[in-house]
Design a protein that fits this description.
Tetracycline Repressor, domain 2, mainly alpha, homotetramer, DNA-binding, 9 helices
Chain lengths: ~180, ~180, ~180, ~180
DNA sequence: GATGAATGAGGCTTCATTCAT
DNA sequence: TATGAATGAAGCCTCATTCAT
């Protein structure tokens, strides 16, 4: 599975190649299919396992009514901690097999939902402006995914991410 | 070329298949290669031709200091007018061959640049808040591309686009 | 036909390409097949026409009991005068279609036969050593064809040819 | 590899066909490419392996100052022992891919060099006439290759070879 | 469990030849 | 007579998957 992970990071989902995975794992090509019935199940398994692990990392920090800023930071830290995986998803999520794509999206909802609640809290507290939190989050997730998907076009996430976050917060906060 | 266009819309760049294009065009498979030396040149040709045509449509509306709202609307109208193409690009732009991707991005700069200038003008005129226009545009383009790339997740562009635009403008405008 | 000649010189018989010939002739691809029923008839026609023309050039010089030296020189001059054609034949004669190959060989016999007779005369006159003229001519033709077939391995025919001729004559002449 | 060898013998390098090789080997077409990355590497591998094996067979007999006659005989025996391969090379060597052709020629040098030295020794010993050994060897190799390349034109190598050898030696030896 | 050779369908490309215009 | 788009068979190569050992 580590070899498959590396293959996904290096070549993405579409171009991932079972022979290369086997080589990377130091086993014969056929051996891959003893452990996973098909290429798809192998790759999907990795994607889900990693997606869920990432989500699980995040969950403990979602309780206790964190501020939006804290959640944005959490999001950036987590992406940065799994950068190759995050990049692969940013690039290929839209063209992943429908079932896998749906499951990945589901796994990500807790963070998005926590952000939505944080926004609502901020608005109730008069710290954030009025407006639709879902739309706002579209801006955030869209910008972050775009940043990840084009690593040659933008500064690295560690640099550009905080700038995005500050810009985002400035727009949302009451002046 | 129309068959190739349809193939790109239906299957995307990576999965576009010369045999299916030939069938779609009602010719033999080999015939495709009389008109285009390779699959890549055919697909890239379509992508660039359509990308440039779209860009050209937009250019006349960029002169005369249009407002940001006008430009956002223009953007949405143009995407909606070429929805299958826009969706394909939103989905696959990050994994397109580097050369093609670069050319597509170049073709799109005039609109982005006009938006940037419109923001600057709005800021000078005291109608828009202070802040980095590039960051703001990251939010806009990110959200729009995300919307296009996941057509099953969001309402159609014609519905969701204006909502995005209004949300975006509300954030930028001085309260 | 000139275009086909050029194509044969540039690419050889096997790799000669009817589309390139048409382009070279400034006509449409299909037009080639108005004048020649098949690629093979076109190429074979060229090869035979040129082979016969070359042979015809040589024939007048075969009468009048020329010396072997004169004939060797004639051979070298004629090859040099049609170097691209001679090179193509040296390279590809063994793999030409059987019928064409046979005809090319027939066309060449007068020169070989004249050489054989010159050798016999030289032997009768006591100027050349005893031995089988056919074997000797195998050496000559073999060496010359080898020289032509590997232009990058040997000095040009104009340089190496005379050396070969002198070496050959020295071996044959009575000491 | 045996199937490829047979294919080379039957159809030559240019016309060798990977599908026919697969059939000959009793495997599926795709299987060929498990063992050899490309057609070219397969064919080149065969040619080099066989060329080197042939050369290696000869090498032990090159030491100990053999006579020219012994070397010519060795040459003929070795060609006869690998007749289909020798014929293929005689026919196609000039049109082989440049890199392969160069390697084949290199592999053959030891024999040619041994012949050259044998000639020099023969000349020193007063048994062979004065003259350029390289030119003489052009006659020998040229005649032998011509004989091999046109199997339908000449008696078989086993018959004609010794005659060529005797004719060659007679010309070189001091009368 | 592991191997790795084998499968076979599918992909792109070439090119001599045909034929409606 | 000329055109040139079209044909279609053939060629090389890839890769997920199977299976006898």
């Amino acid at each position: 599975m580590d070899a498959a992970r590396a293959e996904l990071a290096d070549h993405g989902y579409r171009e991932a190649n079972t022979a290369r995975i086997a080589t990377g794992a130091g086993v014969a090509h056929g051996t891959v299919f003893l452990h996973f019935p098909t290429r798809e199940e192998l790759l999907d398994g990795i994607v889900m396992a990693d997606g869920q692990a990432d989500a699980a990392e995040v969950v403990p920090h979602l309780s206790g009514s964190p501020t939006l800023r804290a959640l944005l930071d959490l999001h950036l830290r987590q992406l940065d901690a799994h950068l190759p995986f995050a990049r692969m998803l940013a690039r290929e999520l839209p063209s992943l097999p429908a079932a896998l794509r749906a499951r990945v999206l589901v796994v990500r909802t807790p963070l998005a939902e926590a952000m939505r609640l944080a926004i609502l809290r901020g608005q109730s507290a008069g710290q954030l402006r009025a407006g639709d939190p879902t739309t706002w989050l579209s801006f955030w997730f869209g910008a972050v995914e775009r940043l990840l998907a084009h690593p040659d076009l933008f500064p690295p996430l560690a640099v550009r991410g905080p700038a995005l976050r500050d810009g985002f917060l400035t727009l949302l906060e009451c002046p």
